Amino acid sequence: MPVDHYENFPVASLLLPARLREPVEAIYAFARSADDIADEGDAPAIARLARLDDYRLELDAIGRGAPPRDAGLAPMFDRLARNIRTHALPLPLFRDLLDAFGQDVGKTRYADFAELADYCRRSANPVGRLLLHLYGAATADNLRLSDKICTSLQLINFWQDVAVDWAKRRIYVPQDDLARFGVGEADIDAGRCDERWRALLTFEVQRARTTMLEGAPLARRLPGRIGWELRLMVAGGLRILELIEAADYDVFRRRPTLGRSDWPRLAWRALRYEGTG
């Protein structure tokens, strides 16, 4: 399954246990289609928000045990409902995702990190929480560590996608951080990678790395193939931060991404990580 539209989702990898592929794919289909409503095409904002409201009504129907309301959405929501019932998945996590996607329709600036972190709480953290529920590992401490990993992955995606988001006239770098380092929107528009920008992105990269490392103990705690998948996710996120640094923080001219040559390195790091702590 392609993951280019919704990069927070560790979907259907070879490491995912076969019994979990069906629920993961059902969740992914919901998340990706809702994300596409918010982010793709040229429909006006009011139409996008109305369609996301249709998704909310379908979630309400699942909560009541009722059939889908919209025939066009029935296949996706019938499948989602089966998996929600089978695995006792919390409906509020799906509503959080819709709230975040709806926010993307109209909100293009974030005043401070607290505001951005609240967005991450709804856009990224529900994915990790849903996976922990599927794994039968949704303890309070595991959920806390998962939130750290997922928030970090979302932040990393923001910092590698500064130019992509600017093309949509979105800026996820907190406004108070821009002001603190003396970077303006005109600098982003010009793709100006000067000392001010490097200092700003150094700060943001380090915050994302610290957050990831705070959550990383979860990758040792989960057993088997699930733990391996999570260790690769952690290693992959940290590797993208290294690539941002290696590019001297110039994310305007080339988007840092993982390439084929990175995977042996990530596998080795995941293997070494398994034997630490």
From TrEMBL:
SUPFAM superfamilies: Terpenoid synthases
InterPro entries assigned: HSQ_synthase_HpnC (IPR017827), Isoprenoid_synthase_dom_sf (IPR008949), Squ/phyt_synthse (IPR002060), Trans_IPPS_bact-type (IPR044843), Trans_IPPS_HH (IPR033904)
Enzyme Commission identifier(s): 2.5.1.21
GO molecular function, one term: squalene synthase [NAD(P)H] activity
Pfam families per the UniProt record, alphabetical: SQS_PSY
UniProt keyword list: Transferase
Name of the protein in its database record: Squalene synthase HpnC
Source organism (scientific name): Aromatoleum anaerobium
Gene behind this protein: hpnC
